[in-house]
Design a protein that fits this description.
The complex is a heterodimer of chains A (about 110) and B (about 120). With about 110 residues, chain A is mainly beta. Helix content of chain A is about 0%, strand content about 50%. In chain B, the strands form 2 sheets. In chain B, strands 2, 4, 5, 9, 10 and 11 form a 6-stranded mixed beta sheet that branches. Classes of the chains: A mainly beta (about 110), B mainly beta (about 120).
């Protein structure tokens, strides 16, 4: 049973560029949540997708956007990158019905220079 | 606003001793409290969780307690082993079942188990 997978593992971008991160949920899961984890901090909620719609959003600017595909996989897009966007981006998947425990992927380490 | 405080930020114990990490949450509507273990270079791993209708839950060497009146919950690890060394995060969420709500995380505890 494959767990949550994310790609790429690492990414280096220049300030002002755009980036797309990808996530495949755990088999059987239908909900994907994205979190940003700065160094030495706990994960911060960005947004959550269910049934291909953004269901809930954290305190992040519109530069952060996402998408969920019919196969439940998801993308996180960040436009006009800032140095402060450097972080570990985590994807978590869950099943909306039932206990809704969230399982995390290994993350994508984004460095903005 | 929603907030989860976690203490201590670092904890060093001798192998075989117990470790306790404590969290306090602010949102009285929170009903679900998971604990995650994060090893270096990896994503958080769910190790145990508790829902508001339960006061205590145990899984082998790990136990979690919840005091909803005081808005406190704690992680207890007994007979610690070097492989328990990691960063531990507590979290809180509204909706214990079938809900699609965000997790609010604490700031983490770096646990070091000395052999």
């Amino acid at each position: 049973d494959a767990g949550v997978t994310q790609s790429p593992t690492h990414l280096i971008k220049t300030r002002g560029q755009q980036v797309t991160l990808r996530c495949s949920p755990k088999s059987g899961h239908d909900t994907v949540s994205w979190y940003q984890q700065a160094l030495g901090q706990g994960p911060q909620f960005i947004f959550q997708y269910y049934e291909e719609e953004e269901r809930q959003r954290g305190n992040f600017p519109d530069r952060f956007s996402g998408h969920q595909f019919p196969n439940y996989s998801s993308e996180l897009n960040v436009n006009a990158l800032l140095l402060g966007d450097s972080a570990l981006y985590l994807c978590a998947s869950s099943l909306a019905s039932g206990l809704n425990e969230q399982y995390f992927g290994p993350g994508t380490r984004l460095t903005v220079t | 606003g929603e907030n989860v405080e976690q203490h201590p930020s670092t904890l060093s114990v001798q192998e075989g001793d117990s470790a306790v990490i404590k969290c306090t949450y602010s949102d009285s509507a929170s009903n679900y409290f998971p604990w995650y273990k994060q090893e270096l270079g990896k994503g958080p791993q769910l190790i145990i969780d508790i829902r508001s209708n339960v006061g205590e839950k145990k899984d082998q060497r790990i136990a979690v307690t919840l005091n909803k009146t005081a808005k406190h919950f704690s992680l207890h690890i007994t007979e610690t082993q070097p492989e328990d060394s990691a960063v531990y995060f507590c979290a809180a969420r509204r909706g214990s079942h079938g809900a699609t709500n965000k997790l609010i995380f604490g700031t983490g505890t770096l646990l070091a188990v000395q052999p």
